[in-house]
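Structure tokens please, single chain.
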Amino acid sequence: MTRATVLIVEDSPDIAQPLADAFRFANFEVLLAPDARQALQLAHERRPNLILMDVQLPDMNGLAAAEILKEDPATRAIPIIAMTAYDIDAAQVKTVTRACVGYAQKPIRPREIINLVEAVLKLPTPDQKSRGTKAPPPPRPTR
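Here you go.
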């Protein structure tokens, strides 16, 4: 049974496909979008439980797309985690804290990002399920 739907917004198939495979293996439904335009459309049509948003996209900055989603009453409740290969500067930190619940530095380690997503969504991990405990609160961004 699928636990939650994650929209992965990433223009590089070399990053998107392994992430998608890891999330599917962890029992998530996965939606893929290679650019912001498709991400905005999928977010409205499918209402994923969480969005992983690359910052550097071919058609629009991912943080700008995140702000659009947060301004729209239909999508503002969807948590967004920004993904970037670059250090986030002071101006971007404001946008990340305003539009995203956190960010992940590339290269992305699939197990770590899945753990972060499960914490944000407050889903029990397989280990917690076997012990009957609840998921911990979501971690604060470290950068």
